[in-house]
Design a protein that fits this description.
With about 250 residues, the protein is an alpha/beta fold. The chain is built from nine helices and ten strands. Helix 6 links the parallel strand 7 and strand 8. The structure holds adenosine-5'-triphosphate and magnesium ion (MG).
């Protein structure tokens, strides 16, 4: 994966979310984990990388896909379809079963026929030990199971890149471990992942590369182990010492 940010800015009215990010990462990124204080710009950056919106100024280039203020909605939509995306809270359709939650977008968005969609959806559920829950609705599943269905849905069309915004924020520690295991499996199978999290134990376990965002700016980035063991900037040191303290 190649990720290049050039003067990337995002402003909502008077509110700055990203103040000009510059970054050039190349090679097998594996999993890129965004950390940093609340309001630092993690979700905004994920939305721009996922082509859910355009920046106010500057450019984000992910492999050959470019997102900039002049990119039109049609191109954004095409890129959006190519990625797998999961938001922070379970956004499954409540009236559909786990299986239908996966088959519906496969058929409607990705144009697979019904039988293929069903086979694929069963395969994804089985992969995450969810086969026996295929016919349950979200309300009949635990939070961890719902989130695993969400991940199964996000990868069912074999996205090049999986984008997860705080995939464990609504989960208790045991369920967090389940989701962590799923993400580990995906990493081992070569899936490229960009995710944000407030859980440093989780970040440390899954991150190949870490990007610390604070106040809409790149505070620091580097090899996962390195940023956690020896943060170079004072801002990252302060943030990590604060959040690691309570673990
Ligand atoms: N749609 C929006 N309209 C107005 N302001 C927004 C919008 N989205 C984000 N912001 C603002 O942009 C800044 C960055 O928000 P963002 O959601 O990217 O932070 P974050 O790092 O994901 O925070 P958290 O860790 O709490 O999820 C915040 O100050 C936020 O209030
Ligand atoms: Mg966020």
């Amino acid at each position: 994966m190649q990720l290049k940010l050039e003067g990337l800015q995002k402003r909502y009215g008077e509110q700055w979310a990203l103040r000009g990010l510059d970054l050039d990462l190349d090679g097998d990124l594996g999993s890129l984990v965004l950390i940093g204080p609340s309001g630092g710009g993690k979700s905004t950056l994920l939305r721009i990388l996922g082509s859910l919106e355009t920046p106010t100024a500057g450019t984000a280039t992910l492999d050959s896909q470019r997102n900039a203020p002049d990119v039109d909605e049609r191109s954004l939509r095409a890129v959006r379809r190519a990625h797998g995306y999961l938001f922070q809270s379970f956004n499954l359709f409540p009236h559909l079963s786990a299986l239908e939650n996966i088959t519906l977008p496969l058929e409607k968005v990705h144009g697979r026929d019904h039988d293929e969609a069903k086979e694929r959806a069963f395969g994804c559920l089985d992969r995450f030990q969810l086969a026996e829950h295929a016919h349950k609705r979200p309300a009949e599943l635990s939070g961890g199971q719902q989130q695993r269905v969400g991940i199964a849905r996000a990868i069912a069309h074999e996205p090049r890149l999986l984008i997860l915004d705080e995939p464990t924020s609504a989960l208790d520690p045991e369920m967090t471990a389940e989701v962590l295991e799923v993400i580990r499996q995906l990493r081992e199978s070569g899936q490229e992942i960009i995710l944000s999290t407030h859980e440093m134990g989780f970040a440390r376990a899954v991150a190949d590369h870490v990007l610390f965002l604070a106040d809409g700016q790149v505070g620091e980035h580097g090899d996962g182990a390195h940023v956690f063991e020896q943060p170079a900037t004072e801002a990252a040191q302060r943030f990590l010492s604060k959040v690691m303290h309570y673990r």
